[in-house]
Amino acid sequence: MLPLLSPAHLDRDFDYLVPPELDEIAQPGVRVRVRFAGRLVDGYLLQRLSSTEHTGKMVKLERVVSPERVLTPEILRLATTVAARYAGTRADVLRLAIPPRHARTEASGSATTPKKPAARVEETRTEDADSSTADTEASADIEAGSVVAGGPAGGTAFTGVEAGFGGGTAGATADVAESDSATAESAVDVDVSAWERYLHGGAFVAALRQGKGPRAAWQAMPGEDWAARLAELAATVVAAGRGVVLMVPDQRDLDRLLAECVRLVGDSAVGLSAGLGPAARYRRWLSVLRGQARIVVGTRAAVFAPVRDLGLIAIWDDGDDTYAEPRAPYPHAREVAMLRAHETGAAFVAAGFARTAEIQAVVETGWAHDLLAERAPLRAVMPRISAPGDSDFALERDALARAVRIPGVAFTAARAAIKENAAVLVQVPRRGYVPSLACAKCRTPARCRHCNGPLALPHSSNGEAASPHCKWCGITEAAFRCQACGARALRAMVIGAARTAEELGRAFPGVPIRTSGGGDMLDTVGPGAQVVVATVGAEPLVRGGYGVALLLDGWALLGRADLRAAEDTLRRWMGAAAMVRPRGQVIVMAEPSLPTVQALVRWDPVNHAAAELEARAEVGFPPAVRMAAVDGTTESIAELLEAAQLPDQVEILGPVPLPPTARKPFSGADEPAEVERMLLRAPRSAGTPLSRALTAAQGVRSSHRSDAPLRVQIDPVDIG
């Protein structure tokens, strides 16, 4: 049995006696209730054994919660691997992987024989695809068997992605006869010829059709219908009798991708997200567990979906911060996806318009391969991208092009697009009216006198002037005085989407102005002359594409004190530029000589990711190294480091203040005044020993009943 207990030193298997009345339904993978230290706790039955090495008194299994075998052997192995990778416990990982039981939903369903509707893929290329797959590399088999009470947890040492990035193929294990009959009944034609536009794209699809496990980093071209392309890959894998997991960052992308999958394979595709509600989510999860659904489209939790005979796992836009799990042990969906693909031999695709340094790292090791378009077809679909003042001639025409927020060339392009009855997209980095204020004299950020929070200027619906207010406590600051120089005047540091829309409404009278962002996000807008002001990531789609896109306030995105500022900025810019039609125009308001701006102008995310990876390697930041962030009080951090037997290669950095955007490792009214962060840096070869040492140290702390707040994160998104 594996009791779901929080203390790290109790992350082990325990032997219990199965009474005769529960013998039939007490099968591996079911939910159980067991008595532990005098109280009833939830758990999972891992394995039935005929004997035990435990010499003491055996405690009986209290009851089987449900006969549904919700914990599959593959998910247990994955949970064990993820817990070892992120210095956590299997109980915490399984809470993320398996949704809470909904008894009525479980009782209403029936474990029927799974239907396997598949798509008949149109043959478009017959060349050998062996070059797209690497040789199979052996990995350790993580056992799920029980051990005696007090013994070590079952399973072997972590042998995941960093153990060599071994690729491989996987033989199909589905019932061929059953799959063939279902395929013949519900097959549809899928045209995969669009993949021929990408170098080795046809070979990649052919490898999927043959049941192999190729792994690729796919950079979509501007204007590409990425949802349709991923759905075609999924249909190809389902046609071979295997399952698929597709991950997207948000509900809007989920709806778009799920619609494409349903169009190709029907009810064999389901969507999983937290917004469904307990009953609907559990019903769909059960359909996946029982083999009735072959394609899962979901957000970060879908990476643990119990898809039978997994053949493909794909992630779209892996740089989005929503893929980072905010609950212990804080895994990243991209890393879990790569671990699962490595363990199962399934194909893997990291897709997006831009590329992260983490994906570039696995490409450079050979674990995955590039799936790129050649320059000629790329230029045919690219919009014209430029930055104001990018040449001496441009500066002669407009000397203030780099100084003003929206230069004359941007207004000219927008007017031309509106004249052609095309939509104009205006991307701004912040929502609100004037979300950030500073002293007009010394430029010191304006702060509240009561709580030291940032001051902002709210939008007034009646057009009257409003006083600045605090974004933290909400108190109005009617008589501001700068704490640094004593001046009373304020200036805007950043202009928000609401103020931008107001200014553009005056600049383009009679033209519809639409806003998208925050709680008022638009999925699509109709074609025609209009100006759409959207915050980053909230840009709506328009049929036929935008005529012009204006990317404002580039300095606000690039100037953030964040390790991933340049990478995230390019990702945001490319996502907006990809919505512009081929002969359209994109104008980015940023310094033209910056490498990130040049990467956008050339549409070159691969070299930008390579340069970003090289820069991080020089200064020793992930993914070039393995880094652990330990957050807590001074006493709790010192207690953990004293108990940890760290490898010799580990370098201790800090303590440093907790980043302002990072969540504190505790909640409640008894928060300590000071929270620190200690960084532990190790080469990738020492990543597994570092995680193992931190796991053991947390076990020592929990066995000593230490209740001081502490959090351990491996390779956090926000390092500080």
From TrEMBL:
<protein>
    <recommendedName>
        <fullName>Probable replication restart protein PriA</fullName>
    </recommendedName>
</protein>
<feature type="binding site">
    <location>
        <position position="485"/>
    </location>
    <ligand>
        <name>Zn(2+) 1</name>
    </ligand>
</feature>
<feature type="binding site">
    <location>
        <position position="451"/>
    </location>
    <ligand>
        <name>Zn(2+) 2</name>
    </ligand>
</feature>
<feature type="binding site">
    <location>
        <position position="442"/>
    </location>
    <ligand>
        <name>Zn(2+) 1</name>
    </ligand>
</feature>
<feature type="domain" description="Primosomal protein N' 3' DNA-binding">
    <location>
        <begin position="7"/>
        <end position="99"/>
    </location>
</feature>
<feature type="binding site">
    <location>
        <position position="482"/>
    </location>
    <ligand>
        <name>Zn(2+) 1</name>
    </ligand>
</feature>
<keyword id="KW-0067">ATP-binding</keyword>
<keyword id="KW-0547">Nucleotide-binding</keyword>
<dbReference type="InterPro" id="IPR042115">
    <property type="entry name" value="PriA_3primeBD_sf"/>
</dbReference>
<dbReference type="GO" id="GO:0006310">
    <property type="term" value="P:DNA recombination"/>
</dbReference>
<keyword id="KW-0479">Metal-binding</keyword>
<dbReference type="GO" id="GO:0003677">
    <property type="term" value="F:DNA binding"/>
</dbReference>
<dbReference type="InterPro" id="IPR005259">
    <property type="entry name" value="PriA"/>
</dbReference>
<dbReference type="GO" id="GO:0006270">
    <property type="term" value="P:DNA replication initiation"/>
</dbReference>
<dbReference type="InterPro" id="IPR027417">
    <property type="entry name" value="P-loop_NTPase"/>
</dbReference>
<feature type="region of interest" description="Disordered">
    <location>
        <begin position="103"/>
        <end position="142"/>
    </location>
</feature>
<dbReference type="GO" id="GO:0008270">
    <property type="term" value="F:zinc ion binding"/>
</dbReference>
<keyword id="KW-0639">Primosome</keyword>
<feature type="compositionally biased region" description="Basic and acidic residues">
    <location>
        <begin position="119"/>
        <end position="128"/>
    </location>
</feature>
<dbReference type="GO" id="GO:0006302">
    <property type="term" value="P:double-strand break repair"/>
</dbReference>
<feature type="compositionally biased region" description="Low complexity">
    <location>
        <begin position="131"/>
        <end position="142"/>
    </location>
</feature>
<feature type="binding site">
    <location>
        <position position="448"/>
    </location>
    <ligand>
        <name>Zn(2+) 2</name>
    </ligand>
</feature>
<feature type="binding site">
    <location>
        <position position="470"/>
    </location>
    <ligand>
        <name>Zn(2+) 2</name>
    </ligand>
</feature>
<keyword id="KW-0862">Zinc</keyword>
<comment type="subunit">
    <text>Component of the replication restart primosome.</text>
</comment>
<dbReference type="Pfam" id="PF17764">
    <property type="entry name" value="PriA_3primeBD"/>
</dbReference>
<feature type="binding site">
    <location>
        <position position="439"/>
    </location>
    <ligand>
        <name>Zn(2+) 1</name>
    </ligand>
</feature>
<dbReference type="GO" id="GO:0043138">
    <property type="term" value="F:3'-5' DNA helicase activity"/>
</dbReference>
<comment type="function">
    <text>Initiates the restart of stalled replication forks, which reloads the replicative helicase on sites other than the origin of replication. Recognizes and binds to abandoned replication forks and remodels them to uncover a helicase loading site. Promotes assembly of the primosome at these replication forks.</text>
</comment>
<keyword id="KW-0238">DNA-binding</keyword>
<feature type="binding site">
    <location>
        <position position="473"/>
    </location>
    <ligand>
        <name>Zn(2+) 2</name>
    </ligand>
</feature>
<comment type="similarity">
    <text>Belongs to the helicase family. PriA subfamily.</text>
</comment>
<dbReference type="GO" id="GO:1990077">
    <property type="term" value="C:primosome complex"/>
</dbReference>
<dbReference type="GO" id="GO:0005524">
    <property type="term" value="F:ATP binding"/>
</dbReference>
<dbReference type="GO" id="GO:0006269">
    <property type="term" value="P:DNA replication, synthesis of primer"/>
</dbReference>
<dbReference type="InterPro" id="IPR041222">
    <property type="entry name" value="PriA_3primeBD"/>
</dbReference>
<keyword id="KW-0235">DNA replication</keyword>
